[in-house]
Write a structure and sequence with these properties.
Layout: H1 2-15, H2 21-73, H3 83-86, H4 90-93, E1 99-105, E2 110-115, E3 123-131, E4 134-140, H5 142-146
Antiparallel strand pairs: 1-2, 2-3, 3-4
């Protein structure tokens, strides 16, 4: 009977032990590795989300240029290369919190949108080209190299 009680006490004592120091250190190391990977990915994700406002700011200007080109510019992009000609206010297009400016380049109708300083002043550029009576847009800018657009 004494032996049975002694064995029972040993089993009970073993069951009540907690985590060892090495087990806790391994868990802390795994959490540290996950945080080191997740934090930069999250920062890039939020920057991309904020830069989408800059891309969106160009869409109204792009649409206005396309409508102007189809309506009266047909074959002549210079008839639709200023804010006055397309009937839009560039200040309204750049009204977003993350948009520094939206500009149309005269004679070429290239649209350049620039993000604010917290977005590293990255640019998003849309260049129109006439092709078969319609406009084809090429996307360039510093946001391409940054991976934001």
């Amino acid at each position: 009977m004494k032996n049975l009680n002694r064995i029972k006490n040993k089993i009970t004592n073993k069951a009540q032990t907690g985590f060892t120091l090495i087990e806790l250190m391994i868990v802390v190391a795994i959490i540290g590795i996950l945080a080191a990977v997740a934090l930069p990915a999250y920062q890039t994700y939020t920057k991309k989300a904020r830069f989408s406002e800059v891309v969106l700011a160009t869409s109204a200007v792009k649409t206005a240029i396309e409508v102007c080109y189809q309506g009266r510019g047909r074959g002549d992009l210079t008839a639709c290369d200023t804010a006055t000609e397309i009937g839009i206010t560039l200040a309204d297009a750049a009204a977003g919190a993350d948009v520094a400016s939206v500009v149309i380049t005269g004679t070429t109708a290239i649209i350049t949108a620039t993000g604010v300083t917290t977005l590293d002043d990255d640019t998003y550029i849309l260049t129109p080209a006439e092709s078969g009576g319609t406009l084809v847009w090429t996307q360039t800018g510093t946001c391409v190299a940054s991976g934001l657009c």
